[in-house]
Write a structure and sequence with these properties.
Helices cover 8% and strands 42% of the residues. The chain is mainly beta. The strands form 2 sheets. The protein has a 6-stranded antiparallel barrel with strand order 1-2-5-8-7-6. It has a two-stranded antiparallel ribbon with strand order 3-4. The longest helix has 11 residues, at 10-20. The protein is elongated and about 65 Å long. The N and C termini lie far apart (57 Å).
Length: 143
């Protein structure tokens, strides 16, 4: 007979994933409140503020996606550079249009690359990490 209370809990699996997979340091930030520039008479984006900085990982979503065109227009959120951002469940949920950058990583080519958040992070009743769809906006290496 097996005891249903024996084995790994979702919390234990989350802890393992965080230690073994979320090994890079990422930063999620969003634009600050607009600031009035008296020299131009215009409101300009305020300095960005950090929403989260800590363990995370960014993975390609299996290669370039197919961009759907309707009457010559691309689907609003389709992108040829779709990635998945993984963060601990304890991290704040990223919002659409937040920006993500890799601060530290074993692969130095990933450091400094920038993605924009396409939508709120996925959620489910069986989550061990938060998955958020992002679009890479850095187009050159070493930026």
């Amino acid at each position: 007979m097996s005891d249903s209370n024996v084995g790994l809990t979702l919390g234990a699996v989350s802890e393992i994933v965080e230690k073994k997979i979320l090994t890079s340091k990422i930063r999620i930030y969003r634009p600050g409140e607009p600031v009035f520039n008296p020299d131009t008479g215009q409101y300009e984006p305020g300095p960005p503020f950090t929403v989260y900085e800590g363990p995370g990982a960014v993975f390609p979503a299996g290669g370039p996606s197919v961009v759907l065109h309707l009457a010559g227009q691309a689907y609003v959120d389709d992108t040829p550079s779709r990635y998945r951002l993984l963060t601990p469940l304890s991290a704040p949920v990223a919002s659409r249009e937040d920006t993500v950058t890799v601060v530290e990583a074993a692969d130095v080519a990933a450091i400094g690359r920038i993605w924009r958040v396409l939508d709120l992070g996925d959620t489910s009743t069986l989550s061990v990490v938060r998955t958020t769809w992002v679009d890479q906006i850095t187009q050159v290496a070493g930026v």
